[in-house]
Amino acid sequence: MGTDPLNSTLQMKKRARVDTPTSNCSCSVTVRMACDKSANNGFISLWFAGPLANSPEKRQDLVLNIIPTIILNCDFAPGNGVRDTPTLSLNLSEPGAVFGPIGTDSLRPFNPDDREFHSFAAICKSTILRLNLSRQQFQGTDLKKLSSISSFLQRRSVQPRPFEFERHHLAPKNHQDFDSPPKPPPYSEQDVSQRVAEVQPPPYHGQTVGEQVISKRPIDIGSTPASNGRSKRIRLPSPQFTHCADKINRASVLCEPNTPSVPTEPNTPSTRLSVASSICPTPFTLSAFPDLIEHKEPARPEQETPNATDDNTSSSDSSPSRSIRPTCFRHAASTSIKHRKLVGLREDRSHDPDEPISSTQRGSHASPARYFRPPCFTHASSPDSPGHWKLAHLEQELRNAPDELIRELLIRVGRSHLLAAPTDTTGTPSFMFEVGSAKAETLEERLERLVDQRIEHYLESGDSQLIAKLTERATSECREHISDEFKTRGDDFEEEVESGIFEVRRAVEEGLEEIRKQHDQCEDDLKDRGVKVVTAAEKAVSNLMHWYNPPRQNLHDRRLCPPHELGINTRRRST
Questions:
Q1: Nearest CA to 166 among 97, 104, 101?
Q2: CA 67 to CA 161: how far, in whole Å?
Q3: For residue 475, is it within any domain?
Q4: Residue 83 phi/psi, 5° resolution?
Q5: pLDDT, tens digit, for every residue of 172-182?
Q6: In angstroms, rounded to a whole number, what is the distance separating the alpha carbons of residues 314 and 146?
Q7: CA–CA separation, 130 vs 123, rounded Å?
Q8: Residue 430 domain-assigned?
Q9: Rounded mean pLDDT of 229-242?
Q10: Which H or E run contains 101?
Q11: For residue 294, is it within any domain?
Q12: How far from the centroid of its chain's Cα atoms is residue 557's Cα?
């Protein structure tokens, strides 16, 4: 025989004054109690509202949740007399769990002297609680319901009901969050001048201006290695510029100081070098667009003769001044080959990038001056360079763009014929999305279209495992969402029902009170009118009695009067 679902679930929400015998403090809270006999769970929660330090303009909720597993004893005393207060006594094995607003690190009141808040903090840390409820809140069978809840929560087998604190915008807190921050150390009342006098500045050893010697900064000989030929050598990227290094080394030797006893830094060379010999072209490695750029060597003049002093350099590099030439950029097939050679040299770990390239690394190819020729940026350029630069710019812009965007761009510029599907379908299997119209569409419409196309592709491909996996995942997510929504709606419905019942009862009480007042007023009016009617009736009856019963003396006189004494009028009246 099953349990009645209406009687298996009991809920109650009342105002109470909670106190603890361990400390002389009490505060007003809202008590929420519930038990489910079919699910064998229940809870008791104490809700306190007050302004916190982080939000003084709004009252925040603090909750003390008491689960049945920590309840050692739960006694309910309903009270026999009218003035007796129903009391619920709780004896806990440990303090209950505290929940506070989300985003608060500490639980401190806005007013440090708030006694209600400090009392609730002490109650949260206590294990003995007494809930005093007002009898005016109970109507009908509320006392029996509260007694049933208290006796059910006292059982050892009752499990705690999960507290959905996220729905109330709460988070778990610790009892230490109620503690006040530690006080700062006391300020020392020491004289400021005395403290300043204790701090003595370091002694200053002055030197007169005449004794100061203006000299160069000495060099630490011990920190400099004795023989370091490589550090003095200027590293150049090509052998064709070694004559510049020789000239600079000779100039530095001539400018060295002649006093070996005082090691100082060498002075700046004062010898003037010729402009033609001092210009050393800077090598550039143009690897940004290896397939688009080629260094074309311009035509050499007829009077140009090879340099006899350097056998390894080319004839065009007889002097540094002649190595400065305008660079032309042209698209050539040999550029990719040169780029691969340069990449091979770059990937070689054994090669020092600061040292010149030897003849063994070059092999049988041309001189490295063709690959590391310094460009002179002048107005001289080939006629085809703007198109190549534009193509490189478009390639850089469209490199990471999605396929759908490129297709739509081709449609807008009138190049939709380039979207024809290739006849060769061999290779890796792939699918193509349908190209939409050229009219502008919103982001939501585009996403919906892409999702629909992807779903159609999955359905057409016949991947049953993937479809089953996606369906199962979507079903589980929908099931969880429906379950959470059902629980949330159920709790909200229960709260609405409780509040509705409370409002109906209050309206009924107000109506009954108004009916009683109207009844008493009508009864008083009826009594007043009844008294007035009775008084008027008695007066009318007395008047009637007086009119029908004349005085006896007058009747007796009329009987003794002789007939001859009656006047003429009397006779006429008798006739």
A1: 101
A2: 8
A3: yes
A4: -85, -5
A5: 888 777 776 66
A6: 107
A7: 10
A8: no
A9: 48
A10: strand 97-101
A11: yes
A12: 120
Return the structure tokens found at 438: 């050229």
Same domain assignment for residues 528 and 391: no
Q: How many CA atoms lie within 13 A of 227 on its CB side?
A: 0
**Joined tokens for residue 386:** 């703007």
Q: How much is the pLDDT for 458?
A: 73
Residues 494 and 377 in one domain: no
Domain count, the chain: 3
Q: Give yes or no: residues 496 and 375 share one domain.
A: no
Tokens of 174: 């610790």
Lowest mean pLDDT among 85-94, 154-163, 498-507: 154-163
Nearest residue to 68 (alpha-carbon basis) of 173, 170, 149: 149
Q: Is the pLDDT score of 424 beyond 80? A: no
Instruction: Specify the amino acid at residue 192.
Output: V
**Chain segment 69-103, per-residue pLDDT in tens:** 999 988 888 877 666 788 899 999 999 999 988 88
Domain limit, last residue, from 177, 198, 232: 177
Residue 57 lies in a domain: yes
On the question of pLDDT at 160 being above 60, the answer is yes
Nearest to 241 by CA among 313, 300, 307: 313
Tokens found for residue 23: 């400390």
User: 254: buried, middle or exposed (CB in 10 Å: 19+, 13-18, 0-12)?
Assistant: exposed
**The 3-state secondary structure of 131-178, one letter per residue:** EEECHHHCCCCHHHHHHHHHHHHCCCCCEECCCCCCCCCEEEECHHHH
What is the extent of the structural domain holding 498? 467-549
